[in-house]
Amino acid sequence: MFSSRFPPDFQPNRLTRAVEAARRAGTPILDLTVSNPTDAGFRYPPEIVSAFEDPRMLRYEPTPAGLPEARAAVARYYAARGVMVDPERIQLTASTSEAYAYLFKLLANPGDHVLVPRPSYPLFDCLAAMESIELRSYSLSYDGVWSIDFDALTAAITNRTRAVILVNPNNPTGSFLKRAELERLAPLCAERRIALISDEVFSDYGFTADRERVTTLAAVEECLAFSMSGLSKIAGLPQMKLGWIVTAGPASLRAPVRERLEWIADTYLSVGTPVQHGAARLLAAGEPVQQQIKQRTQANLQFARNALAGSCANPLNVEGGWYVILQAPRIRTEEEWALELLARSHLLVQPGFFYDFESEAFLVISLLPEEAVFQAGITRLSRFLQGSSVQ
Fold first, then answer.
1. DSSP class per residue in 158-202
2. d(CA 172, CA 178)
């Protein structure tokens, strides 16, 4: 009766079941997996609410690419970061997840391939399944810093490969694309007529400056490229449901891309009128929220580095984003680490296999929790490590 796009069963994993059982029992849990900024104690300015007082939002204006004023606001966001983007190159979406769906529809037929980094964002499998395309992974290698394994990437390319996805900075490794990597990627994709798709929702959250870092592909000219972002991360406003795609690459390809993206968007018309009219004010009001997030994540990262330095789970190097990775000893699996931390320390972390790490044992923790909560959680983690049977 049902489509084969769905997973064979919808049963929650062991960690989710254990968390649900602990909460039913009334066990207080220190949660180091928080990813929703609206649940993390940040102060939101009242201008966010007043952004919806515009009476024009009572009028329905179906514009497939998005209202011109909203696209102009997004263009100004890029201009403030030194990248000039014509609003005609911007396609509004309800989210970056929807942006992926649009681009998969644009570029791939059922059964075609899209390359994704490993480790990376766990939603790709679901997004690809919904579009009936196949994911193939390429590795990110770590030798003190994360980088693209180009041998793995080129080996993964077939005559059915339609796009290479970059998450920049990657979730959860926090690694940015470097200029030298882009200089190899762009001609490779141009030669093979493969598009680059760059998810840049965390690009404003670098921890240190680096001149070799590529923060956006919006200015790429050599190959067809798409940059995606949205209010969810850059303004800490996931509930506002506004994302976008910026098309870059050869001028000869931009017009047919725009025509087809608008055709897809016209089929769904998913972006709400109120958030489009409020886009400029929401972007402006989100700036102090972004600053709070930057301060929080940097402070929490420094605390984790200090508290866990010299331990058996020293944090790996991270350049940006909202997460940090701990490499734990292989005396137990990632799932066992997470389950024991929950059972014995009432501490919730994510096991690395959620992000498709290639080997054991990695734990992923969020840098978003309030500082007192984060510090208490890291202290519990440190004590657990000291008391575990690590040789």
1. -TTEEEEEEESS-TTT-PPEEHHHHHHHHHHHHHHT-EEEEE-TT
2. 17
- What pLDDT is attached to residue 388? 67
User: Which residue bears the tokens 């030669």?
Assistant: 191
The third-level CATH classification (topology) of the domain covering 47-284 is: Aspartate Aminotransferase; domain 2 (3.40.640)
Q: What is the mean pLDDT of residues 326-353?
A: 96
Q: What angle do the packed helices 371-387 and 279-308 form, to 10 degrees?
A: 30
- The predicted model gives 307-311 an average pLDDT of 91
**β-bridge pairing 243-248 and 90-93:** antiparallel
pLDDT digits (tens, 9 = 90+) for 56-105: 989 998 999 999 999 999 999 999 999 999 999 999 999 999 999 999 99
Amino acid at 277: H
| pLDDT tens track for 224-266 | 999 999 999 999 999 999 999 999 999 999 999 999 999 999 9
CATH for 14-43+287-385, options being 3.90.1150.10, 3.20.20.80, 3.40.109.10, 1.20.58.100 = 3.90.1150.10
Instruction: Give the DSSP letter of residue 245.
Output: E
Residue with tokens 């790996």: 316
For residue 307, whether the previous peptide bond is cis, meaning omega lies within 30 degrees of 0, is no
Phi first, then psi, for residue 178 (nearest 5°) are -105, 155
Beta bridge pairs of residue 213? 178
Per-residue CA distances from 19 to 12, 31, 191 (Å) = 11, 10, 49
For the record, the structure tokens of 8 come out as 């064979």
